[in-house]
Amino acid sequence: MEQERRGILYPERLPEFHRVPPPPALAHAVRWFWIPEWDLPEGAESRQEVLPFPACNVVVEPDGISAVGPTTRSSERVLVGRGWAVGALLLPAAVGAVVPDPASLRDAARPLAEPTLHGVIRSAMGDLRRPGATRRAIAVGALADWLRELVAVPDPGSEAALANRLAELLADPALTRVDQLPDLLHVSIRTLQRIADRSFGLSLHAMIRRRRLQEGAERLREDPALTLAALAADLGYADHAHFTRDFTAQLGVTPSRYRERALRSELR
């Protein structure tokens, strides 16, 4: 199980959150499964703010299943009462089978009519007589089986395989510029941008910027002594003013103000 929380802007607010790696047979299709659960007292709420990496997800909730497209900004959800979700963060090789045109689902979701799958997961997650680990394992197993039937393993030289490799590189902190990609993948920027449009629904530049901002938010939370100038340089920005503009545009708050809020959340 993986508990890394990059992209979750205020981790200390999470009631309970789990990330589960995919089984080996599904490593071509899913980066990880994710499961939040909460049971809050009457009148209480938990405000969740997220800056996710721009990718597509399949999300199962008590009222249905959705294909969720890539995001272009941070998002917020207020949790109340008792609830859960079971999600799969899709790799590019799986996107065509679930979201044929990811650009059409930017910042949006589409219902998936899969009543059998929904029934199995809802039954498992709602059975509070079972230990939490057992409920989650049943739910993840059902979603994994469904995706395994839907998504074929890509041929090594296929566009889907190249798209998965592109996703790996885009998540690497060492990659800070689009012009680094052609030498690493031995294809042109034009080809890679076409693959990005089909498999992610966003530009290469937008995805690199998002990953840098995720990393920036994480480091602001973890290292109160880190200066903005040093952080901007580490992330590949020309100066801290450029980093501050990007950060504020995406999160709606300056890096300094975000650090203050994150620290307050940890101290509560």
From TrEMBL:
Signal peptide (residue range): none
Pfam families named in the record: DUF6597, HTH_18
Keyword Transcription regulation annotated: yes
Key words, A-Z: DNA-binding, Transcription, Transcription regulation
Keyword Magnesium part of the UniProt annotation: no
Ranges where the HTH araC/xylS-type domain occurs: 160-261
UniProt superkingdom: Bacteria
InterPro entries, A to Z: AraC_XylS_family_regulators (IPR050204), DUF6597 (IPR046532), Homeodomain-like_sf (IPR009057), HTH_AraC (IPR018060), HTH_AraC-typ_CS (IPR018062)
Name the UniProt record assigns to this protein: Helix-turn-helix domain-containing protein
